[in-house]
Amino acid sequence: ISQPDQQYNDDNSQNSSPGQSSQSSSSSNNLRSRYDKAKNFLRGNKGAGKAEEKAVAKIGQKLALQLGSKLAPLMASPWFWIVLLIILLLLLILFLLLGVFDDQSGNLVSITKSVDKEAVDNPPTDAGYLNPATPTPQDITYTINVSYSGQAQLITVTDPIDENAFVVSADNNPTYLDAAGTQTTDLKLARTVVWTITPSGSSAPISSTSTSTTPQTPTNSFVFDAAKFSEYGFPAPQNPNPAKLSGNDLARWKTMMSYAVKASQVTCQGQDQGKCVDVGIIGMWAWIESTFYSYMNVCGGTQQANQNNYCNYNTILYQIGAFGNHPEYTIPYFKAAFETMHPGETPQAVGQKILDNSKNSSLCSKKDCPISKPDSFPNITVDELVAGTKAGKQDIRMLLYTLYKDDAIGAYLVAKHFQDIGLNKNLASTMKGWDKSSYDSYNSQRIINHIKGIYDAGIDGSGGGGMGGSIILKLVVRPKQSTQNAYIINQAFVSGTGGTDNTSGSGPSISLGTPIPPSSNTCNGKYDLSKNPLGSNFGDPNCELASSQKQPFTFTKGDYKGTTIQVPVPLRSLIQQLDPQNLEIWLGIIQCESSFSPNAYWNPVEYKCGTSQCPPVWGIYQLDAPPQNNGKFDVGNVDWATQTSNAINDNNQRLEPAGLKWCAWQCADKFSLRGAHCK
Asked: What domain range includes position 281?
């Protein structure tokens, strides 16, 4: 909180009206009063809390002595302990019924990030440094961990790239956007990296990067294509359609839908039209083969063979999982299935989850549940699983069979199987040929009715992901050669349909060269260092803002609507990366609080207000400084990049959870953000 509309020696001072300038002196007492109320609200409550704690502690000690003398005879009786135990049990039952121990956070998606080094040397000048294929000591690797609940839908991770760096690489097939937001394959032009993740924990590329002459572009718009299925040899669906999903089958399809969509898309990448497996076919197959039962285990003629018994797929027909996949035909695709549908995860983690869920009778409901062979999933690689299976090792095969019961892997495998079968005019007759004399499971009318039934139930590419999970993304950037003794800021953002957005924490996350301490540099007279008690340039010690280019910014809302100001490019870029949705608000607050002076300082003595009631405030955002600060982020006597990070984190991590978002800045009134909750 600070005196608004103060004038500092900076480029934007001329944008303040004469009325604003005179208000600084004429209404200082009224503004100081509002400042005191808001500041005391934040600090006063904390002080009152401490006082109350001390008082309660003293009363508690006295009562404890009194109660102790009266309770001693009662505690000697066994009935006392019996009654106490009954009360405790009743309370426990009540807590369980009320869900007291449930996680109430409601976060469907969250994100954390780490970096592999704190600082790197300034870049060299040789031309070879610009080659992304050649690693350098300046390469910075960010690890992004995205977690999601079972109810999360399609998830998008966006990572803006600092203007001081360029992209070297990113895993899991992201989309790269240039400064104009256009997709690009030139990493040096990439300013934003975007990953699309399905609830199965895999990355979903939006478009094909294949050089195939007629690649099929996957889509999230799903409409039943009668003409396509007619080309496959199927009749039109019956009307009304007797195949209708409902009840548990419908719920299971909604859970598995995202896996089917993902499998359809990733197996279509770079393929001709005739190789793209329709989502309706994938969903239909799980419906008619297992009624979406993930733990289906058909060995030979036994419809539900005991899944704890070994079945040799080399000598007998064996189908596993919701999609009834045949190991005999699909093992060549298993490695790609696992790595595509579960990138960043291990077979042990996925396998153990399948074993754990087999103990849930709502998921594994047959008499052979739960899975006991194996009783726990060992640490083993995908390559070891495939090699051991091909070598006929029964214990390894049992592990592989367990992983076949994963819905995401199963969807991928069945898509590859249908590609091998052939998506052409013979598909309907081929499937009809699978029927034995006494069967009629695969007649063409039944198949097309079930495919249409999948579409009737809805396909939107955003079905729930079942058990939830996480995915690890890697991004490597490299400082540009022009970047010397500066910061690189990197922060990823996540959003999920129906979920909650969380950012990855505070930036700057990495500095180049030596961290920047305060200096005595006035930046060619731009800053009057005598105005702050440090007598130094704490906010822009290397004159980065003073010497930077400025771009015009025109406000579109609030009291500043229609006003154009000049904004330092590095500052705008940093805010854009850390809190893009509030860029205009932050720029308005900065204009009002400090006129963009990183060394701004408000001296309470000038306004005849003691520092204990009105602590001084510092920097672009007029934050406090130790020891008067409210928490670790309420610190303004630091460089401009840290000031920006501190202000955004203080607003999001301290004020917002307390119901006080924007309350620390009276200048937020210019956007009508400080309502009754700030009084």
From this structure: 226-457
Residue 289: inside a domain, yes or no?
yes
pLDDT band per the 50, 70, 90 thresholds, residue 272: low
Mean pLDDT of the chain: 76
Statement to judge: residues 434 and 473 lie in one domain: no
Indicate if 438 and 545 belong to the same structural domain.
Answer: no
Q: In this structure, what DSSP letter does residue 651 have?
A: I
Number of domains in the chain: 3
Query: Cα–Cα–Cα angle for 174, 342, 297, nearest 5°?
Result: 145
What pLDDT, on the 0 to 100 scale, is given for residue 43? Answer: 36
State how far the Cα of 13 lies from the Cα of 555, in Å rounded to an integer. 16
| Relative orientation angle of helices 334-341 and 394-403, to the nearest 10 degrees | 40
Q: Give the H/E segment covering residue 335.
A: helix 334-341
Cα atoms in the 13 Å half-sphere on the side-chain side of 67: 6
CA distance 297 to 306: 7
Nearest to 642 by CA among 503, 522, 517: 517
Rg of the chain over Cα atoms, rounded to whole angstroms, equals 32
DSSP conformational letter for 216: P
CB atoms within 10 A of CB 55: 10
> What torsion do the CA atoms of 175, 181, 187, 191 make, to the nearest 10 degrees?
-110
Whole-structure pTM value: 0.43
Backbone torsion region of residue 201, taken as left when φ is above 0, otherwise alpha when ψ lies between -120 and 50, otherwise beta: left
Is residue 203 within 8 Å of 195, Cβ to Cβ? Answer: yes
Residue 636's Cβ-side half-sphere holds a number of Cα atoms within 13 Å equal to: 27
Per-residue burial over 230-267, b if 16 or more Cβ lie within 10 Å, else e, is: eebbbeebeeeeebebeeebeebbbbbbbbbbbbbbbb
- Adjacent-strand bridge partners of 537: 519
Question: Between the ranges 463-467, 604-608, 653-657, where is the mean pLDDT highest?
Answer: 653-657
Same domain (yes/no): 375, 480: no
Beta bridge partners of 142: 115, 475
Provide the pLDDT for residue 29.
39
Spatial separation of the C-alpha atoms in residues 462 and 254, rounded to whole Å: 9
The percentage of residues in the chain with a pLDDT greater than 70, rounded to a whole number, is 73
Q: Are 667 and 674 a contacting pair, CB within 8 Å?
A: no
Residue 569, number of CB atoms within 10 A of its CB: 13
Q: Per mean pLDDT, which range of 106-115, 352-361, 445-454, 574-583 is the poorest? A: 106-115
Q: What is the per-residue pLDDT across 505-544, written as a single tens digit (0 to 9) for each?
A: 323 333 333 446 888 999 989 999 988 888 999 999 888 8
Do 315 and 383 sit in the same domain of this protein? yes
Which candidate, 204, 268, 230, places its Cα nearest to that of 419?
A: 268
Give the model confidence (pLDDT) of 635-676 as tens digits. Answer: 899 888 889 888 998 998 889 888 899 999 989 999 998 888
Q: How would you classify the pairing of strands 510-512 and 119-120?
A: parallel
